[in-house]
């Protein structure tokens, strides 16, 4: 029995982007296609085989420890972006404003995909889901530049809807309009009760 199950869910790529200089801005530049390597997208601020650890993993590693980079991609869904915008009270939340590298439509509840799920493109290009991406304040500055008075609303509105982070399992190319098939781990959900079983 395979450890991963190919589902019938497919997500269409509606947006691709690259954050070129995160120190200047989190805003991403839109792209029609991207070459995907084991390090991520060339020229992307989140690219690299390793990265310095951040506040998300302080209970595992001291800050700035070199660790494996499982945050090469920021993947969001069109549904979540629409819901965040509605909660913020704005007409539209552009993927570039939140530093997205990939936006897809057609996979429900994308922000809560199980870790180790795969998103596989038509040429075999494969991204592995690390985990839910928790909202931070960085997009607020970009949003505020376009819609004064609304940037501070992002973090709360994006809770549970910020998408997932992912890393590259198989190299290739991703293009606007490509369909990504969802594969999920074949295992029951973990629970604290399982710790007591032998």
The whole-number mean of residue pLDDT values reads: 91
Category from helices, strands and their pairing: mainly beta
Number of contiguous helices? 3
Global geometry: globular
Spell the H/E element sequence.
EEEEEEEHEEEHHEEE
Extract low-pLDDT stretches: none
- Taking the alpha carbons of the first and last residues, their distance comes to 22 Å
Strand coverage percent: 25-35%
Q: For the largest sheet, list the strands in their spatial order.
A: 1-8-7-11-10-9-13
3D structure, described in words:
With about 200 residues, this protein is mainly beta. The chain has a domain at about 5-30 and about 75-165 and about 175-185: M1 Pyruvate Kinase, Domain 3 (Beta Barrel), CATH 2.40.33.20. The chain contains three helices and 13 strands, in the order E-E-E-E-E-E-E-H-E-E-E-H-H-E-E-E. A seven-stranded mixed barrel has the order 1-8-7-11-10-9-13. A three-stranded antiparallel β-sheet has the order 4-3-12, with no helix packed on it. A two-stranded antiparallel sheet has the order 5-6. Strand 7, helix 1 and strand 8 form a beta-alpha-beta unit. The longest helix is centred in the middle third of the chain and has 11 residues, at about 80-90. It is globular. The two termini are about 20 Å apart. The model has no long low-confidence stretch (mean pLDDT about 90).
């Amino acid at each position: 029995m395979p450890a991963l199950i190919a589902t019938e869910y497919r997500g269409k790529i509606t947006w691709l982007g690259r954050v070129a200089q995160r120190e200047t801005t989190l805003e991403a530049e839109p792209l029609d296609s991207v070459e995907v390597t084991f390090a991520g997208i060339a020229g992307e601020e989140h690219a690299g085989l390793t990265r310095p650890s951040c506040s998300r993993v302080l209970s595992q590693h001291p800050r700035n420890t070199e660790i494996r980079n499982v945050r090469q991609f920021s993947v969001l869904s069109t549904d979540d972006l629409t819901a965040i915008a509605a909660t913020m009270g704005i007409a539209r939340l552009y993927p570039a404003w939140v530093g997205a590298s990939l936006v897809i439509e057609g996979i429900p509840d994308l922000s809560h995909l199980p870790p180790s799920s795969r998103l596989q493109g038509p040429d075999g290009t494969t991204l592995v889901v690390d985990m839910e991406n928790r909202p931070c304040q960085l997009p607020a500055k970009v949003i505020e530049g376009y819609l004064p008075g609304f940037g501070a609303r992002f973090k709360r509105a994006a809770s549970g809807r910020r998408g997932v982070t992912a890393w590259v399992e198989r190299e290739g190319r991703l293009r606007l309009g490509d369909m990504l098939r969802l594969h999920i781990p074949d295992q029951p959900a973990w629970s604290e009760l399982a710790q007591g079983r032998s």
